[in-house]
Amino acid sequence: MAQQIPVDPRARADDPSSDAARDDGTHEVAADLAYRRLLLVNVVFIGPPNAGDRGWVLVDAGVPGSKKTIRETAQTRFGAGARPAAILLTHGHFDHVGVLEDLAQEWDAPVYAHALERPYLDGSAAYPTPDPSVGGGLMARISPLYPTNPVDVSARLHTLPEDGSVPHLDGWRWIHTPGHSTGHVSFWREADGSLVVGDAFVTTAQESAYAVATQAPELHGPPLYLTIDWPAAAESVRRLAALKPERAITGHGRPLSGPELRRGLDALAQDFERIAVPEQGRYVAAPARAEDGSAYRAP
């Protein structure tokens, strides 16, 4: 059974003494970096408050039904009518692209993702089937019910630049962090050590409905039931740990910061196979990969 690394709650990158959000509904981890939790997943807003139209970027696009919340959060934080310069995707699982099609169209915004993630975003391929046998919690057991079919934003879809730069975000770079999905990426700003990691690792036991509800901070590998390549996931965590980040916003759970983040991330990286990888499971025995086409199914 996969394990977790407990983390001191004081290591939260947002205010550990309060769960109160700003007026716009977000929690800030830096002056121009904030997140909002939408049911079971986080979306990230990059850009200073009052940045205006095209002065900010959205990372990931929430769960189905969250369009109004995301739109109103953006209006309050960045100004009336403020559309993003781009929507960046860490990956295309249903809880990260729930309202992507609607928002991209309404905002006429370009969408950027890794080349290996494109088939899930242009309507041409479905994700591998979730594995409910791993994790043991309610969220894992019901995972066969989660949507795996692709969205289609092909008219606005762009591949992230090969040089690692991030369009519309000076000072940020994207890092390929596969494992949870084949084209998963994380975003890194070296100047202040900020990481937006999607589901490369998370800070809650996403398999457990109780843990999702309570959000007690602890470091985990990627959510078990949707991770399709465990050796790649291990290398991705080690790549991120080597950056020695100051703060990290994950797709699930509260953001963490400081020495406690680095301690926990180093421990996860050094002992990933014991801590994060389930003892058995569909993708433990047979990883699904882009190279042989097993990561892609007919929609």
Provide an overview of this structure.
The chain is of the alpha/beta class. The chain has a single domain (5-285), classed as Ribonuclease Z/Hydroxyacylglutathione hydrolase-like (Metallo-beta-lactamase, Chain A), CATH 3.60.15.10. 21% of the residues lie in helices and 18% in strands. The protein has 8 helices and 14 strands. The chain has a 7-stranded mixed β-sheet with strand order 2-3-4-5-6-7-8, with helices on one face. A 5-stranded mixed β-sheet has the order 9-10-11-13-14. Strand 7, helix 3 and strand 8 form a beta-alpha-beta unit. Helix 5 (230-241) runs antiparallel to helix 6. It is globular, with a radius of gyration of 17 Å. Keywords: Hydrolase. Residues 9-25 have a biased composition (Basic and acidic residues). It comes from Methylobacterium gnaphalii. Pfam families: Lactamase_B.
Strand order of the largest sheet: 2-3-4-5-6-7-8
What does the overall shape look like? Answer: globular
How much is the average pLDDT?
90
Helix/strand structural class: alpha/beta
Count of domains: 1
- Estimate what percentage of residues fall within beta strands: 15-25%
At the first level of CATH, what is the class?
Answer: Alpha Beta
Rg over alpha carbons: 17 Å
**Total strand count, please?**
14
Biggest sheet: strands, sense, closure? 7 strands, mixed
CATH fold label: Metallo-beta-lactamase, Chain A
CATH architecture: 4-Layer Sandwich
Uncertain spans: 16-20, 206-214
**Which range best describes the helical content: under 10%, 10-25%, 25-40%, 40-55%, 55-70% or over 70%?**
10-25%
Q: Please trace the helix and strand order, writing H or E for each element.
A: EEEEEHEHEHEEEEHEHEEHHH
Provide the CATH superfamily. Ribonuclease Z/Hydroxyacylglutathione hydrolase-like
Total of helices: 8
First CA to last CA: what distance? 32 Å
